[in-house]
Write a structure and sequence with these properties.
Number of strands: 7
Strand order of the largest sheet: 3-2-1-4-5-7-6
Order of helices and strands: HHEEHEHEHEHHHEHHE
Structural class: alpha/beta
Largest sheet: 7 strands, mixed
Radius of gyration: 17 Å
Helix content: 25-40%
Shape: globular
Distance between the termini: 28 Å
Length: 241
């Protein structure tokens, strides 16, 4: 069982994560606009709920387990907030009787103890037209490949120090992620990567602080994600029933 209080405290301290969140959100918004999005479900919002950057929806349901993140969500007429782990509060979401067009599962599947349980819960609130966006850390990220080449890790799937601190169960590669969602009964309609990162979060933050890299370079690394999707810092799939 994840310690959500410890997680939220460590999350707030994690270097470079705000940059990773920025590019993760950029990709989500690009993809979201391509699909029907009247009713949206966001599972896990952190400190950056979708409504801050996207307002073209009828209803947004946010499910967030961390108290600090949940309490920071603003009260809005078309935003419904549910506090808890999605698997445990899915009945509350089902009881809203909302037909979801788009579901966002951001940087979560690799953290939960039982990914199939989470996916089954998500499946229970889907209809035949629902698109589900799932993004996770990538085992074949350039910085992991570099660590293996340097002999720091034996396998790109090995859990890093930061993964252990952040209670992250694993890092998927794209094939493994596809197998996971297919096993749960979904079909993959799209996949790709988000942001090429050659170094760890801590190293990237130091280079940014020392002005060795800048936002123009970071934007370039984001654009490279289209060229090297399987080696991005994060990967995603979009699925339907």
């Amino acid at each position: 069982m994840r310690n959500i209080i410890d997680y939220q405290e460590k999350y707030l301290e994690e270097p470079f994560e705000n940059i990773q969140v920025y590019y993760r959100r950029k990709k989500v918004l690009e993809l979201l606009r391509k699909h029907r999005h009247n009713n949206i479900l966001e599972i896990g919002c952190g400190l950056e709920p979708l409504y801050k950057y996207f307002g073209n929806f009828d209803r947004l349901v946010i499910v967030e387990p961390a108290p600090v993140f949940f309490e920071a969500i603003e009260s809005r007429d078309n935003v419904i907030c549910v506090n808890g782990f999605f698997e445990e509060v899915v009945d509350q979401v089902t009881g809203l009787e909302i037909k979801f067009d788009y579901i966002i599962v951001g940087s979560l599947l690799h953290e939960v103890d039982d990914p199939q349980k989470l996916l089954r819960a998500i499946k229970s609130v889907c209809n035949k037209d629902t698109v589900v966006h799932i993004n996770v850390s990538n085992a074949y990220s350039m910085h992991r490949l570099l660590a293996k080449a340097m002999g720091i890790i034996e396998d790109v799937h090995d859990r890093s120090k930061m993964q252990k601190i952040m209670q992250r169960r694993c890092a998927y590669d794209l094939d493994e992620l596809k197998v996971e969602v297919i096993e749960a009964g979904f079909r993959v309609i799209d996949s790709g990567g988000v942001f090429v990162k050659f170094f760890t979060h801590e190293q990237m933050q130091k280079m940014l602080d020392q002005e060795i890299i800048n936002m123009q370079m970071l934007d370039g690394l984001y654009a490279l994600g289209e060229v090297f999707p399987e080696n991005c810092s994060e990967i995603y799939v979009q699925v339907m029933l």
